[in-house]
Amino acid sequence: MLSILIPTYNYNITRLVADLHQQAIDSYVDFEIIVMEDGSKLYVEENKIVADFEFCRHIVLENNIGRSAVRNKLADEANYGHLLFMDCDAEVSSEHFVEKYISFCREECVVIGGTAYDPNENNKAYSLRLKYGREREARTAIERDKNNFATFNFLISASIFNRVRFDETIRGYGHEDMLFGHQLHQLGYEFIQIENPLIHEGLDDNETFLKKTEEGTRNLFLLSQTGRYPFLMDESKLLHMFIRINKLKLTRLFALKFDILKSILVKQLCVESPSLLLYDLYKILFLCKTSLTK
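Given the sequence above, the corresponding structure tokens read:
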């Protein structure tokens, strides 16, 4: 019936697995939970308790193989016809989380459950990640773009997954979900958006989030330059804006602005209530800078 697959990197997964396991047991369906440590150095010993749960496995990879490869490997390990993927830094917020997905396990499907954030979390150290998450990610099923695909919390039939799989040639952080979602659309699959979010618990502090933003932006640009993903220019608002700037021959000016304004922008983005418009500006200026230093 259902394989619950959790790629893990340096994160304590025991509470998440315990909650999922109890819900699956209560649902009286055939299931398994597979946790795969992707080269983790932390919490590996603590997470070994996962193997003590009935129908659960804890697999340790000595070396980090990356976000795409580890998901493909988890799918290869799965025994059931529907795969429920989720990130390790998640928390179950509903006692009916597993049950809601089980209702889709009788047909081929791609189902997106969504992302939520703890309303009581207001630590200034995470202000930018929280602001971005709450305003750009934490949307109800009705509010979400029907074409939006995210790997944080989704169900997919194994038969569909094996026609697509994640592109293991992608290196660096970010955008493997965009490519995977595009491939699904190319094959004619639609996404079912449902109200079944997990809470995103593993928040990056502001400095780390900005570093990941730069890494993801750089990776997006490099992917676009390979020529293998022409659709990125249409599907990425950031790349679309960059093309307009480039056509106007303003790229060098924007790159210079990044050098001049970076410290000011970083300071403004680390305040208690940062502006996402400034965050978007940071990304486009950084992209222009990256395009000249590739």
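Residues 206-225 form the longest helix (20 residues). Try to locate this feature in the token string yourself.
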